[in-house]
Amino acid sequence: MGKQWMKPLGAVLVAGTLLVGGTAWVAPGNYAYAAEVQGVQQNVIHVVGKGEIQVKPDIAYLSIGVNSTAETAASAQKANAAKIQKVSNLLKNTWKISADDIQTSQFYVQPNYTYNDKEGQKIKGYTAHHTLTITYREMDKIGELLDAASGAGANNIENVRFTVENPENFEAQVIEKAVANADVKAGAIAKAVKRQLGAVLSVSQGDANVPVFYATESLMAKDVAESAAGTEIETGQVKVSTTLNITYEMK
Questions:
Q1: Domain ranges within the chain, ordered by starting residue
Q2: Chain-wide mean pLDDT for the chain?
Q3: What does the alpha-carbon distance between residue 140 and residue 74 come to, in Å, rounded to a whole number?
Q4: What's the domain of life for this entry (predicted)?
Q5: Radius of gyration from C-alpha coordinates of the chain
Q6: Which of 49, 120, 206, 223 gives 178 a disulfide partner, CB atoms 3.0 to 4.6 angstroms apart?
Q7: Is residue 57 helix, strand or coil?
Q8: pLDDT of residue 16
C-alpha cells in the first residue's frame, strides 16, 4: 500500500456532506458551506509525478540445471542426483557460496515419448531435471562461475537475473525526482489556464519499482571446448522508480 500525506484541508472537504449513492447529500443549513466546498474542489490540480534513476545491479540470481536421461525413471533420477551433487559441492566448497544462497527451484522426472503410425505413442526412456537458483553478489565473476558449473556437469544454465538488493537506499532520490516532475506538470497546467500554482494539498506514493533484468545464457549441453573461451556476462543497469499522486491548490 502506498504512503499518503494530507493537509488539514482534506478534513474540511468532507465536513458537512454525506455521499449517498454517488450523490452528495447536504444537511439543512449547510448549503452555503457546500457551495464553498465545491469551489475549493474545483480549484485544484491532480498530477502524477514520476521519478526514476538507473543504477548498477549488486545482486544476481543464477538458474543452473542438470538433465539426465535413462531407460527407467529411477535410473534417470539416480544419475541426475549424482550430477547435481557434484555441482552443489563445487558451489559450496570451491566457490564458498553459502547453503542459504542455494535453493532448488525446479525438480521433475518425466517420460519421453516416441510415435509412429504402426505402434502409436510409446515411452522411450525418462528425463530427470533439477535446477538450482543461486544468489550471487560478485558481479565480475558470474561468467567464470557459470563456466565452472558447466564443467562440473551443469548442462542447462537457463538465465541470469540482475536486480538491486536494497532498493530503499535509492528511494529518497526517486521521490525527489517524482516531486520535481509533478511540479513541472502542475505548473504547466496552471500556466495554460492562466492561473497560479498554490500549495501542495495532498501526496500519495505508489509502490517503488525495481524491475529485474534478465540476461539469458544458453549453455544447454555446452561442451568443455566451447567453455574454454570464457563466458562474458554484462550486468548493465536496472531502473529504480516510483510515482507520486499530488494534488495542488490552484489560485
A1: 1-42, 59-166+211-237
A2: 83
A3: 39
A4: Bacteria
A5: 30
A6: 49
A7: coil
A8: 30
- Give the helix/strand (H/E) hosting 85: helix 73-89
Q: Could you give the CA distance from residue 160 to residue 142 in angstroms, rounded to a whole number?
A: 9
Whether the CB-CB separation of 125 and 71 falls below 8 Å is answered with yes
Give per-residue pLDDT as tens, 118-168: 888 999 999 999 999 999 999 999 999 999 999 999 999 988 999 999 999
The answer to whether the beta carbons of residues 185 and 240 sit under 8 Å apart is no
pLDDT surpasses 60 at 10: no
The full DSSP string for 178-235 is HHHHHHHHHHHHHHHTT--EEEEEEEEEPPPB-PPEEE----TT--HHHHTT------
> Could you tell me the three cell numbers for 25?
447529500
Tell me the C-alpha distance between 97 and 91, whole Å. 6
8-state DSSP, 71: S
The class (CATH top level) of 59-166+211-237 is alpha beta
Mean predicted confidence (pLDDT) in 206-226: 58
Predicted pLDDT of residue 197:
94
**Range name among 117-121, 199-203, 217-221, 238-242 with the lowest pLDDT average:** 217-221
Q: Nearest to residue 41, comparing CAs of 68, 17, 76?
A: 17
How far is residue 147's CA from residue 191's CA, in Å, rounded to a whole number? 60
Q: Please report the DSSP string for 143-194 in residue order.
A: HHHHHHHHHTT--EEEEEEEE-S-GGGGHHHHHHHHHHHHHHHHHHHHHHTT
Phi and psi dihedrals of 5, rounded to 5?
-125, 145
Query: In sequence order, what are the beta bridge partners of 205?
Result: 244
Q: Is the predicted pLDDT of residue 39 greater than 80, yes or no? A: no
CB 201 within 8 A of CB 7: yes
The C-alpha cell of 180 is what? 520535481
